[in-house]
Amino acid sequence: MSINPGAAEFPHRQIAAQLRERIRRGDWAPGERLPSIPAIAEMFGVAKQTVQRTVDQLRVEGLLITKPGSGTYVRGTRRRLNRLSRGRYGAHRGYHADLAARYRQHLTEVGRAPAPPEVADAFGIRDGADLVVRRYIVRTDDVPVEVGASWFRVDDAAGTGLERREAFGRPLYQEAEEVTGRRYVSATDTISARQPSREEAEILQIRPDTPVLHLLHVAYDEDHRPIEVAQATWPGPMTTLTEEYKIPAPTPDPDPDPGLALG
After folding, report:
1. Prediction pTM value
2. Residue ranges of the chain with pLDDT lower than 70?
3. Which of 177, 179, 186 is nearest to 163 (CA)?
């Protein structure tokens, strides 16, 4: 491994390209520790500060994760999210099972909390009004890849399993349908990109300047009243969103009015 001092590209970016390639071809597996910064600096014949800039860049990209006092590790494979939240429902239940096999959800908090602005707006209530919330973290290979929460009105969830810190042996929406007596009929998913909050950065083990993707999912009953408002946040560089859909065939233009042709 070497760099070209005469190249226009900065040395830390040249090193990043080579380390990135080695990670992608499997020289370092997910969860494997990289050589120390002094060792990498010696490999390339550069200063330790140059390698630190390389590591910082690859951390922002989501390829590396640094564990204080332990070292720098390959973060893992990219998480692919198909069909966004649709995998939770109906005919796509097999997709939900596939996700559950690869990603482990851990409840971190269940109780009542003030509604954040975007959740309050979705429910049509005032900011800070009490709601029932179920917060969670999703991990794969012991690496956090998602932090999220599902919110319910107190009138719907009070005294039910939704308000207890317990896991269900079925998707959350099925539990909510049973306890509320309302069926999920439609939903909207809104995706935005932003910088993480301090808490999100700490939980997801990313730098504060690493962008995240944020989902706001609102599920409605047949009267278009929200049953559940869910939030999910993922490290942007490690997440791809894939939507597969059919493209309708073109329809032929209708024949012109024969009466017009006679003129």
Report:
1. 0.73
2. 1, 6, 76-87, 90-103, 254-263
3. 179
pLDDT of residue 93: 46
* Distance, CA of 226 to chain centre: 22
C-alpha separations of 48 from 41, 45, 63 in Å: 5, 9, 19
Phi, psi of 157 (to 5 degrees): -105, -15
CA 217 to chain centre: 12
Contacts of residue 225, defined as CB under 8 A and 6 or more positions apart, other chains included, come to 182
Is residue 229 within 8 A of residue 113, CB to CB? The reply is no
Cα–Cα distance measured from residue 87 to residue 93, given in angstroms and rounded to the nearest whole number:
6
Q: How far apart are CA 180 and CA 111, in angstroms?
A: 17
pLDDT at 169 (0 to 100) = 84
CA atoms within 13 A on the CB side of 131: 29
**What burial class does residue 56 get, using C-beta atoms within 10 Å of its C-beta: 0-12 exposed, 13-18 middle, 19+ buried?**
middle
- Backbone dihedral angles phi then psi of residue 142, each to the nearest 5 degrees: 65, 15
Q: How far apart are CA 119 and CA 91, in angstroms?
A: 27
Burial 67-106 (b: 16+ CB within 10 A, else e): eeeeebbbbbeebebebbbbbbbeeeeeebeebeeeeeee
